[in-house]
Amino acid sequence: MKHRQICNPKIGIVNPDGHAIGVDIGATSVRAAILSHGTTDGRPSVSVHGCGHVDLPPNAVLNGVVCDQNAVTAALRQMWSQNHFECRNVILGITNQQTVVRDLAMPKLPHEQLVKALPYQAREVVPLPLDQALIDWLPLGEADPTGMVPGLLIATPRQPVLTAVQAVEAAGLQVARVDLASFAALRAIADEKHGVEAVIDIGAHMTNIVIHRYGVPKVVRAVARGGQELTERVVDRVGLDLERAESAKRLQGLLATNRNFTDALNEGIRPLMAEIRGSIHYFGTTEDSAPVERLSLTGGGAALPGLADLLSEHLGLPANVIAPMQHVRNRLASKELQNEDAELSATAVSVGLAMGAAA
Asked: 189-208 pLDDT, tens per residue?
């Protein structure tokens, strides 16, 4: 999603050294991935040139919304300093429960006319006051015989985006583009060999669900469910403090021998599982639906031991945790990624944002 309303078109999406930087502001940390685009065997490819992350204090970001701009700005400055990043133009990912993504065909028009026509089309399907929303349209093909171009209408609340952009710019960076975090995760995780795939990015507070068909998003949802909710259930039910509950969740998860512990996790997972099931059911009602072939999990919450098997059992689909850099050509050879911790400092969102610079 390219928010021309808030991004300076004079700022290059690709930095002068050829690198693109994706910045993901999550609930617990800020993360960045630096990629460059090229070709391998005649096909487009990307290589990694740096990645990093810095933790955020609690409640600095809630449900995708920056609540403490100073904390986010300080974390970004620290990440740039400690990783010796030199580039300043970034692509910023945003997520919000109120974001709307809908199929919308538009007439083939010059860009200026399209911008003027879009609000009239959007007001019928966007449950937000248009003066409080950022609206964009993404074409998905060529015009049909009637002159209509298939595409996606995207609308999101304006103020949370402006707040995030201000926090980034206060760190001395320049926002060249704003993109949906869900689209970025899809870019990084989707497997072109699978016709219909559900990509599920599980964060601390928010989970993005995208069902795509050969890379074209068909269902896009952001739900306020995530790993933090599971930790809090363990605290309430088992009596562990927050730090110990989080550690036990990451190390043992659903494979733990403590019945109270696993019961607490299962109770917390059920609402998320219902959201995923509901999204798959909704996709099944669309006119061009086809069976979902698999679930691809990413994000910090996806690493919960036993989660992929549980989802597979209850939803009747293969489920796997996918590495955020699966499409990055040099990830195994790069000096930047010589250990697991370095690779984990990137996310599917930060990687997918940088990959989108070629779009």
From this structure: 987 777 899 999 999 999 99
